[in-house]
Amino acid sequence: MNDIQIIASSSYLPKTQISNRFFNEKFNLPEDWIKRRTGIETRYFAKDESIIELGVKVATKLINENKIDKEIIDGIIVATTSTNRLMPGISFEIQKSLNIENCMCIDILAGCSGFINALDIARKYIALNELTNVLVIGIEKISDFLNFEDINTSIILGDGAGALLLTSSKNKKVYYSNIESFGKDNEILTCNSNEKLYMNGRNVYKFAVNKTTNNILETLNKANLLKKDIEYFILHQSNSRIIDSIYEKLDISKDKTYTNLAKVRKYFLCKHSDCYR
């Protein structure tokens, strides 16, 4: 089986940025209330951009920034949960926009773990020598599904896109995955088509901390590695309390961790007239 390597990456955030001030005033919150509970200071909403546009923009940015010949791309896998689009899939629209002729396209729906699932699927196609260069894209336009009267969801979720280009590698690489699903817990985070997102925050917190901690330990065991062998642990950037709790349970020092919650969402202070919704 072939190994894989990442040869290019990129990300795209919408232009509209919403600081905590908007929600502080809406819900009559103390100035630092949201940051203390989530680590978030600013989130991004794709006010005038469709989910397809977000995908096209991050794909184009990756190609241009890394000087990639788009003709080498023979697979596009898109992971998203925030679309009402049934067909053609977003991956097909990105293929069309990039004008790539010979390319396999797949959209997957797997919630917060969608990007990791897409990455794992791409790896298997490459490992079996069925594809060579796969563009993996994660896109969310959650703002379309938010209830802005619900403090549990509206203050923590937003929009954006990220992309990786994977290729086969002749050099031996370490890759282990441990993807699990727990259908019995479905009701803690739901969103039906044309409805607003619902989240049981307390149960999502417990689920994320316990399941992620166990999954990390199982994956290390599967790879015959110890925590001290890992240079960096990078978790789903959901909520600083969840992330900190996982690291605390694993007894992982801060110098081996990474988060972009503050770095990405820190620097903008919105003008009241520009606040979205």
Summarize the structure.
This protein is an alpha/beta fold and 277 residues long. The chain has helices spanning 20-27, 33-38, 51-65, 90-98, 114-127, 151-154, 201-222, 240-250, 261-265; strands at residues 3-12, 16-19, 42-45, 75-79, 104-108, 133-141, 159-169, 189-190, 198-199, 233-234, 257-258.
Write the layout of secondary structure elements.
Layout: E1 3-12, E2 16-19, H1 20-27, H2 33-38, E3 42-45, H3 51-65, E4 75-79, H4 90-98, E5 104-108, H5 114-127, E6 133-141, H6 151-154, E7 159-169, E8 189-190, E9 198-199, H7 201-222, E10 233-234, H8 240-250, E11 257-258, H9 261-265
Parallel strand pairs: 4-5, 4-6, 10-11
Antiparallel strand pairs: 1-7, 2-3, 6-7, 8-9
Helix pairs in contact: 3-4, 7-8
